[in-house]
Structure formats: structure tokens, C-alpha cells
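## Example pair
The file below holds two records. Each record gives the amino-acid sequence first, followed by its C-alpha cell line.
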Amino acid sequence: MEEEIFKKRQLNLEKIVNFGFILEDNQYKYSKKIMDGSFRVDIVISKEGKVSGEIYDLETDDQYTNFRLENIEGDFVNRVKNEYKTILIDIANNCFDEKYFLFEKSNRIVKEINEKYKVRPEFLWEKFPNYGVFRNNNSNKWFAIIMNVDKSKIIPLEKGEIEIVNVKLDDLVDEYLKKKNIYPGYHFNKKNWVSIILDDALTDQEIMTLIDISYNLSCGKICEK
């Protein structure tokens, strides 16, 4: 349950302290009563953001584990499970930042896009669950897509998982293909799109400049100047 809820989240240390977690033994700890005060949930989060939790029956002071057993059903255990899950979701929403992609560079770019254009990635394909599309809110057209691919798809003979962002440059494609870390668009029309490897060869601002161009191209005549 914890792994599923927090798999695309990144711990925010400032938020977790404001929420009420206490740093103890190099871990962040939080407790809350559930089930009308008869049970207590103890949540522990490591500094790396790994979340674990336990539930205790306050009448017996014994640990309650039935909510984790798939073969045990019933109204009571389901209520315990749901109240525990509600706490986890509350912590995820209030103590963690959304982490959409594998690499920190990609997630920083997502944050920049969201802050500037109020757009979040859409994950449209079951076969490619980590491909995130960014759509212009005014025209509904795509202006960027982040994908995880093997490096050999972009640079022959090189291996290893990378993330790329595809952006539309139209008449500027040839000009930018002369620059470092920018390649013909992977899986897109290479006359109009380029692929940028999301590593430290280009700064975040350099990448955002190209995303800005793509965003403006996706506007057509709809977006206000």
C-alpha cells in the first residue's frame, strides 16, 4: 500500500515538519488515532522518503496486522484499512511533491512547465506508462512529451536508460540540431521535432527556452501574445 501511494512522490522536508512529523533517531515519526480513538497509527519516514507504518490496538497495546492480510475480509478490517489508507494519502498530498519521472532533471523541468503554463503531464498509454504528454490548455495541442528510452534509440551503440523531451521547433530544427545534446525527434516528425536528452549537458533554462518555442508554436492564433 505504501509503495503504491508514494511511488511517484518526493519527500519535502519543510512540508513534513509543518505537517507534524518529529525527527527522532534520524527518522521522521508521526502518530494519529483512528477507529474512534481505539487504534493508533504510527508512521515512520526515512530521510530518503521511504514510508512504513504500523497500527496498534490501544486496549491491548498489541500490533494489529490483519489489515495487511489479503485473505482476511470483513467490515471491521476494511474500515481499519481505509482509515489507514486515508492517512497515507493525506501525508502524500501534504508532505511530498509529485514525482512524475525517473530522473531529477525531468522532474525539475515538469515543475518549471507547471509553474509557467499550469500544465501537468498526461500519461496516455498503458504500454508506455512513463511517457508524459504536455498539452497546451488553450489549443489542446501537444507541445512536449517526456519519454524514458534506451540511449541507443538516440545515440547508436550507446546503452542505458535515459529520459528525453521531444519539442516542436519547425523551421528552427536544423539550427538547433547543431547544438549539443539535441537530436532528431524520436518517434516524431523529424522535420518539426527534436529530442533533448535530459541530463546536465544543457541547463534547465536552456531546455525551457526550447519548450517555450514549442509552446508558442502549439498556440497557433489562439494564445494571447
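Second record, same layout:
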Amino acid sequence: MELRWGLAGIPDHEAVQNVGGRLGAARGPSAFRPIFLKMKGRDSVLETMTDFGDVTGITGQIEQNHQKAAEKVAEIHRDRAFSVIIGGSHDHGFSHLKGIREALQMQVHAKGKTTPRLGCINIDAHLDVRKADPAAGIKITSGSPFYLAIESGVLHARGLVEFGIQNHCNALELWQYVESKKVEVVPFEKLREGKAIAAFSKSLKRLVQSCDAIAISLDLDAAAQAFAPGVSAPQAEGFTSSEIIQMVEIAGREKKVVSLGIFELNPEHDIDGRTARLAATSAYHFVAEALRARTAAKRTSGVRILSRSK
């Protein structure tokens, strides 16, 4: 059966204000779609897509925004097995994972099975494990998604890979948190000189061995500012556009990867649509590789069936 997939946007940047970042990511989905929808190729990327629209009713209440976004993601995954989610600030990395997990829970409970183990690779300059506890007066920020995911049980700490993390972007307490939780961290300093792609493949392979479903969370500030100026927290050093696209292609080919979330696209600070174009191209190549891989798997399966019938 041909892969059918869903697209949705999360036009929200409320949590960026709580960490002092540059506002503008709420317009990320509206900057993404005009570029993405003009893309063409030999793969049926647009033909197999259902656009579920943007999350609506965004307010100043971050927890409510997270729930609305999670419901939108869950809606897609109840209807489709594959998705691309466009932010919005990266606190919605939590909404992304929560929605996938809720959909998986509904599916397996209906069949009397246990909930699949969810994994995530966060391609990012930041660990994004800032403590958040609104009841105690500790505000949710755009740097809180994986703290929220781990502490709420949406994601087990050993199911998270922090990939491309830059030392100067993260305070000591954040390093202490991931070390205490035994989260796998792949620092950017170990990925220079063309080492990123092999390292990404290795991390993905480990998750494939231990998880049943995997999401990729791409914070566009993982790319160097020369390639992605339109983000909330730009970085002088980071991945090239080619490295980002290669990584999501590898992820798309893996059948356990069910979703790509792209966050912190901030058109207010973009230059000539450079960052929006990187986001759109990444999404296109992710889906195209998934289509190719599943078509190839179907053909191989058909050959095996024929050979057994002889």
C-alpha cells in the first residue's frame, strides 16, 4: 500500500518569550507552505499528502497550546502512519511527541497490546531540557520540550538522542540533567570534518534496535547561521544544509521513523527565504525517501511471495 502522509503547522511562539529568544516563529508554517507546495520531482510527495492545516485557537496559555497541538498530531497519526509537523517554537517538540504517543496508545489498546516504545533524535544546538513547572512558578520555555517529555513519561530518557549539541549553548544544570538521566548526547565538536552523517546513522540504528516508533525533531538552529539565519537562536557554527538534508533522508528510509518535526523557522529574521527553503527542502527529501523505501520494500515482498509459490 502506498505511503499516505499528513502535514500540519503549529503557529505558536509564546514560549520563546519566556527564554528571551527572538520572536517570529509563529509565522513558520505560513513561510514554509508557499515554498513546499511549489516543489516538484519524480516522487509523489505532494500527491500523497493530506494537509491537516494549522493548530487553531493559540493563546497565551502555553500548556493549552501544547494540548491543542498534541491533539492535531494525534489526529494525523490516527488517520495516517506518517507526518511532517512545522513549528512554531521548539517547546512544541513536546506536543509533537505527545501526539504521536497518544495515537499509538489508542491503536495498540484497541488491539489489546502494550504501547510501543517511542524514540526521538533531537537535531539541535541545544539540549532543550530546561526545567518547567508552572505550578511552582517555573515557566515553560522553548527550551523545555524534552524535560517535559521525559518527566511526563511521554518519552523514556534512553529513547532520546541529543544530536549536534553545542557546549556553549547549554548551562551546567542542563548537562547535569541529561547525565543524570543517561541521555545519549552527541556533541557537535565530534561531528566536524564530515563525521555527522555516519554518526547520525549510528544513533538512529541504536534507536531502531530499542524502539518501535521514532520521531525526528529538527530545530533549525542546528544549522549554521549562514544556512539558517531565520531562527530564534542563531549559531555561528553548525550543520550545513547538505548535512541536514542527508540526515533526514537517512531517517526517511527507516521504516520505524514515523514523523519529522521542524521547529524554530522564524521568517521575521530570515534572509531571502533561506531558512524556509531549507525547512521545505528537508521535508520534501524526508518524505521522498520514505516513499522510495516503502515502494522498494513492497516490490521485494512481492518477489518473495512469487518465489515461494513456485
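Notes on the second record: Residues 303-310 have pLDDT under 50 and may be disordered. The longest strand covers residues 213-219.
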